[in-house]
Design a protein that fits this description.
The structure holds three protein chains of three kinds. Chain A is built from seven helices and no strands. By secondary structure, chain A is mostly helical. Chain C has one domain. The longest helix of chain C has 32 residues. Classes of the chains: A mainly alpha, B alpha/beta, C mainly alpha. Chains B and C meet through strand 6 and helix 2 of B and helix 1 and helix 4 of C.
C-alpha cells in the first residue's frame, strides 16, 4: 500500500448506515428485551439474558467464519490483496470480544437458572475452545515479520482452526451425550417463544451483527492506516540510510 | 543465462529497519565477487536474500533467472549458503552430518569421503561428534557439506574465519575450481588481503547499499 | 545442479537423523520419560483415592502424554535450530512436506515408547486391569492418537521454533487443538480397561474420531508446514 495514495476516510456512507441500523436495533432490543417482552413461565426475568447470549453466540461464530473466509480469499487471490488479511485480523479481534460476552452471559444465565456458573454443554465448551484458539491466532499475528509473511502464517492458522473446531465440537458432543444432563442444559430449549420474544430476538441478532460489521470495518481501516504508516516509516528509514551511506561512502573513497 | 544475480533497488526489512536499502548489484556467471564493508552494513543480509531466504519488500531481485519477488523457493536447491551458523547436528559425527547433507542433495558417498579428506578431516576425525570439535573444525565440516552440493551459486559469509592457513589455502583452491567448473561465488569477508587475491571484483556494502 | 529428492526419501532421511540423534544423546529417554513418570506419581498425590485413580487412569496417562509431548516437540526442533540446521534444510531446497513427515515420524516413535511406559506405570501405580479383549482397541487407539498428536505437534512446533517464533506459544497453540485427541483417546482407553462399566465396543467410535483427526492434520501439515517455517 502506497503511503501517498492512501485515503484516510474513516466513515463512508455504508458504515454510517450500518451504524445507524445498529443503534436503532440495539435500542429496540434494550426496550423490548427489558420491558416489553413477557417473563418466561419457568425462568422468570432470567430469560432476558437470552437477548444478549444468543446474538453474541451467533456473532462469535460469524466472526470465525469471516476470518476463515477472508483467510481463504487471501491465500487464493492472485494479488494477495492485503485487505483480506486485515479483515481476517479485525474479525478475529472483534470476535474474541463477542466470544467472551457469550461465555459471560451464558455463565450468568446458568448460575441463575440451574445454580452453577459453568456446565459442560457442547455449545459453551466449543465456544470456550474457539476463544482460546482465537487468542492463539492473535498471538501468531503478533509475531511480526513482513506483512505478507504475517498474512500467510495467520491464514494457515485460521484454516487449520476451521478443521479443528468442528472436530472439537463433534468430540464434545459425543462426549456429553454419554452423560444424560445434556438436554437439560441447553437453556433456550424449553422456552416457549412468544411472538414478541421471537421478534426481539431477531432484532437482537440484526443489531449485534450490524455492530460487529461496523466494528470490523472501522478496525480494518485502522489496520490499513497502521500498515500505511509502516510504509511511510520505511520511506523515512530508507532516506536516513541513504544519507548514512553517502557519508560513509565519501569516507571510504 | 549469464547474469546470475540481479538486484535493482532491492529493499529487505527487519522490524521496520531496512537492512538492504535500495541495493543494486549485478553478478555475471563465473565471477568471484568480494563484498566488503563495515559490520551491520548488510553483507550477510544480501547473501541471505540471494539464497531466497528473505522477502524482498521493494525493488526487484532475481537470482539464476528466477524472480525472487514471485518465487523464493525454487532457486534454493541451486544455491549454496555458508552463513554464520554451520548448520550441523551437534550429536552426530562429522561423517554422519556430511552424509546426511550428501544424501539430501544426491551426492555420492565416495565424493563425500574425498571432500572431507581435502579439508583435512580423515577417518579418525570423521568419527568424532560435532560437539567435541573446535570452531575451526566445525567450519571445515560446514564447508565440506557446502562443497558436495555442487551449487551454481555459492554464497559465503566469512568463509576464512577461524581457519588456519592450510585450510584457507584449501578453501581458496576449491573456490577457484568451482568457478572454473561454472559456478559463481559471492564472498563476504573481512580478510581483505586474501579475499582480494581470490576475487575477480570487489564491491563495498555500506548502510544497506552496494557501492562499487 | 543438485537433484530434487522425493518426499519419501527426505522424510526417511530426516526421521533417521532425528532418531539417531536421540539414540546418541538420549535426552528424551533420560529426561522426558522420568518427567512423565513423575507426573503420574504426582497425580496420585493430588487425587489421593485408589478407586478414583483406577477409574480415571486412562485420562491421566493421556494427560501425562500431552505434557511430555510439548517437551519432546521443543527438543525435536531445538536440535535443528541450535546451529541453523533447519534454515540450512530450507536453503538446500528440501521439500518442507518431507521434513514435516520425517520429524513427525521420529516424534511418533518416541511418543509410542513413552506411552508404553506410561501404561505400565498405570498398571503398577493405579492398579489398572488389562484384558485381552481390550488389547486390540488399546493398540489401535494408541497408534491413531499418537499419529494425530505427532502431526499437530510437529506443525505448531515448526511455527514456534522458527526465527520469528516464541517457544512459549507452543502450548497455547497446541493444547486446544489436541482436545479431541484427549477426549477420544481417554474414552477409548477407558473402554479398553472396562473402567466404570464402559464396554470395549463403546471405544471404537472414538478410534474413528482419532483416525479422522490424524488424517486431517497429517494432510494439513503436509500442505502447510512449508508456509509456517518460512521467514
Amino acid at each position: 500500500m502506497d503511503a501517498q495514495t492512501f485515503n484516510a476516510r474513516v466513515a463512508t456512507p455504508t458504515t454510517r448506515l450500518i451504524g445507524a441500523l445498529a443503534i436503532v436495533s440495539m435500542a429496540w432490543v434494550v426496550i423490548g428485551g427489558l420491558f416489553v417482552t413477557p417473563k418466561d413461565v419457568d425462568q422468570g426475568d432470567a430469560v432476558r439474558i437470552m437477548y444478549v447470549h444468543v446474538p453474541t453466540a451467533w456473532v462469535a461464530y460469524l466472526a470465525f467464519i469471516v476470518t476463515a473466509l477472508a483467510s481463504a480469499c487471501w491465500l487464493l487471490s492472485r494479488k494477495h490483496s492485503m485487505g483480506f488479511d486485515r479483515v481476517a485480523g479485525a474479525s478475529a479481534e472483534v470476535g474474541v470480544i463477542f466470544m467472551a460476552m457469550t461465555l459471560l452471559s451464558g455463565s450468568l444465565w446458568g448460575r441463575i437458572t440451574w445454580g452453577s456458573y459453568w456446565a459442560w454443554d457442547p455449545r459453551l465448551t466449543t465456544t470456550s475452545f474457539l476463544l482460546v484458539t482465537y487468542i492463539g491466532y492473535l498471538a501468531v499475528r503478533g509475531l511480526g515479520g513482513s506483512l505478507e509473511q504475517r498474512a500467510r502464517r495467520s491464514a494457515v492458522i485460521a484454516l487449520l482452526a476451521v478443521l479443528e473446531i468442528p472436530l472439537v465440537h463433534f468430540s464434545v458432543l459425543m462426549w456429553r451425550s454419554l452423560h444424560q444432563e445434556a438436554s437439560v442444559l441447553s437453556g433456550d430449549g424449553d422456552i416457549k417463544m412468544d411472538g414478541s420474544m421471537l421478534t426481539t430476538l431477531l432484532v437482537g441478532v440484526i443489531g449485534f451483527t450490524c455492530t460487529f460489521a461496523w466494528l470490523v470495518m472501522h478496525r480494518q481501516r485502522v489496520l490499513a492506516m497502521q500498515d500505511a504508516m509502516q510504509m511511510t516509516q520505511l520511506d523515512a528509514a530508507l532516506r536516513e540510510r541513504a544519507s548514512e551511506s553517502a557519508i560513509e561512502g565519501s569516507r571510504l573513497t | 543465462m549469464s547474469i546470475v544475480v540481479d538486484f535493482r533497488e532491492a529493499v529487505v526489512v527487519f522490524n521496520g529497519f531496512p537492512a538492504l536499502a535500495e541495493a543494486s548489484i549485478e553478478v555475471q556467471r563465473g565471477e568471484i565477487v568480494l563484498l566488503q564493508g563495515p559490520n551491520g552494513a548488510g553483507k550477510t543480509t544480501l547473501l541471505r536474500a540471494c539464497a531466497g531466504l528473505l522477502p524482498i519488500v521493494r525493488g526487484e531481485a532475481s537470482v539464476l533467472g528466477v524472480d525472487l519477488c514471485i518465487d523464493r523457493q525454487s532457486v534454493r536447491s541451486r544455491v549454496g549458503l555458508l552463513g554464520h551458523a554451520n548448520g550441523l547436528f551437534a550429536d552426530l559425527t562429522i561423517g554422519e552430518n556430511v552424509s546426511f547433507w550428501a544424501q539430501m542433495v544426491g551426492a555420492k558417498v565416495a565424493e563425500v569421503a574425498s571432500t572431507l579428506q581435502r579439508f583435512g578431516i580423515d577417518g579418525r576425525l570423521a568419527e568424532q561428534k560435532v560437539m567435541q570439535l573446535s570452531a575451526g573444525q566445525k567450519r571445515r565440516c560446514a564447508l565440506a557439506c557446502l562443497v558436495v552440493r555442487r551449487a551454481e551459486l555459492w554464497l559465503l559469509d566469512e568463509p576464512h574465519a577461524g581457519l588456519d592457513a592450510t585450510a584457507r589455502d584449501e578453501i581458496d583452491a576449491i573456490i577457484r575450481e568451482a568457478c572454473t567448473a561454472g559456478a559463481t561465488v559471492l564472498i563476504a569477508s573481512h580478510e581483505l588481503e586474501r579475499a582480494r587475491g581470490l576475487a575477480t571484483r570487489s564491491v563495498s556494502v555500506v548502510a544497506g547499499r552496494v557501492v562499487s | 545442479m543438485s537433484t530434487q529428492l522425493s518426499l519419501g526419501r527426505v522424510a526417511r532421511a530426516v526421521a533417521a537423523k532425528d532418531l539417531r540423534i536421540e539414540m546418541r544423546s538420549r535426552v528424551v529417554v533420560n529426561q522426558v520419560f522420568p518427567f512423565a513418570g513423575l507426573v503420574m506419581v504426582m497425580f496420585a498425590f493430588a487425587l489421593d483415592n485408589d478407586d478414583v485413580l483406577t477409574r480415571v487412569a486412562g485420562g491421566l496417562v493421556w494427560l501425562a502424554t500431552l505434557f511430555s509431548l510439548i517437551i519432546i516437540i521443543q527438543r525435536s526442533f531445538a536440535v535443528d535450530t541450535a546451529d541453523g540446521a533447519l534454515e540450512a534444510q530450507r536453503v538446500a531446497g528440501l521439500d518442507p512436506a518431507g521434513i514435516f513427515v520425517g520429524k513427525a515420524l521420529a516424534v511418533m516413535v518416541q511418543l509410542v515408547t513413552l506411552e508404553i511406559m506410561l501404561f505400565v506405570a498405570a498398571v503398577v501405580l493405579y492398579r489398572v486391569q488389562l484384558h485381552a479383549d481390550g488389547a486390540v482397541l488399546l493398540v489401535t487407539c494408541v497408534v491413531s492418537a499418537t499419529a494425530g498428536l505427532s502431526f499437530v505437534g510437529t506443525l505448531y512446533g515448526g511455527l514456534t521454533a522458527g526465527s520469528r517464533g516464541r517457544e512459549t506459544l507452543l502450548p497455547l497453540l497446541m493444547l486446544p487443538v489436541v482436545a479431541p485427541v484427549l477426549i477420544g483417546a481417554t474414552r477409548a482407553t477407558e473402554s479398553a480397561f472396562n473402567s466404570g462399566g464402559a464396554a470395549v465396543s463403546d471405544g471404537w467410535p472414538w478410534v474413528g474420531v482419532l483416525v479422522v483427526f490424524a488424517a486431517v492434520f497429517g494432510l494439513g501439515g503436509i500442505l502447510s508446514f512449508g508456509s509456517l517455517i518460512e521467514e
